[in-house]
Amino acid sequence: MRLYLDTADLGQIRELSRLGVLDGVTTNPAIVADAEKSYRNAVEDVAEIVDGPVFAQVIAAAADEMVREARRYQEWAADVVAKIPATREGFEALSRLRTEGIPAGATVVFSIEQAVLAAKNDATFVAPYVGRLDDAGEDGVGTVRRMQEIYDTYGFETELLAASIRNTTQAVALYEAGVDAVTMSPDVLEAHVPHPKTDEGVAGFEAAWGDRGSPLDERGDSS
Ligand code: E4P
């Protein structure tokens, strides 16, 4: 399973990289607009500190221009995957990028039909928007679960990358579904760490140890 961070905030990427769980970073135009830098600078900066792919979304709406942007993104860093919106023009762009061997996948995906088209196109990944499906009154996690079953049935190799994850409850349900990959905001990843019982347990061990000091200071530890 791969875990990506959905942000262009370098401080948060650096901080969360220390946990040793990140497989790459996803971005979108809204995330990069928030970072107030050019898309190229955002990708270059993220690529410098991340071990793994950086996902960069095309801005154009027409297939020709999407292809042009995705090609150019390849020059920005060593491991860039182009995100192509799952529109009619987008599927055409995906098909052409496949022919050129440029890594690219379908994003802003809301239906099983779109996920099947992406897989048939040998897309590198497909990104269903779980939170936004829920916002629209649908079952985001349930939709991803059905996509995963279909992908498994046909042996599609496209990575099913669940996106727009709003909380750890959705994340855990996606893990249970055996999804290939998830991308989440720094907040949702941070929320994976704490548990009140862990804090309570650690406090109990500290109290039991009392003022005995570091175990490395004990007699008998000769290193
Ligand atoms: C996916 O890669 C998108 O960047 C992202 O997950 C969209 O999520 P949102 O619904 O929180 O904007």
Structure overview:
It is an enzyme of class 2 (transferase). Transaldolase is important for the balance of metabolites in the pentose-phosphate pathway. It is a single chain. By secondary structure, this protein is of the alpha/beta class. It has one domain: TIM Barrel (Alpha-Beta Barrel), CATH 3.20.20. It contains eleven helices and eight strands. Helix 6 runs parallel beside helix 8. The model has no long low-confidence stretch (mean pLDDT 96). Bound molecules: erythose-4-phosphate (E4P). The site of erythose-4-phosphate has 11 residues, from helix 7 and strand 7.
Compute the number of helices.
Answer: 11
Instruction: Please report which band the strand proportion falls in: under 5%, 5-15%, 15-25%, 25-35%, 35-45% or over 45%.
Output: 15-25%
Number of strands: 8
Which structural class is indicated by helix and strand composition? alpha/beta
**How many domains would you count in the coordinates?**
1
CATH superfamily grouping: Aldolase class I
The CATH architecture can be given as Alpha-Beta Barrel
- Outline: globular
Q: Return the CATH topology.
A: TIM Barrel
Strand order across the largest sheet:
1-2-3-4-5-6-7-8
Termini separation = 39 Å
Low-confidence stretches are: none
The whole-number mean of residue pLDDT values reads: 96
How many whole angstroms does the radius of gyration measure?
A: 21 Å
- The proportion of residues forming helix, as a percent range, comes to 40-55%
Largest sheet: 8 strands, parallel, barrel
Bound small-molecule species: erythose-4-phosphate
Spell out the helices and strands N to C. Answer: EHEHHEHEHEHEHHEHEHH
CATH class wording? Alpha Beta
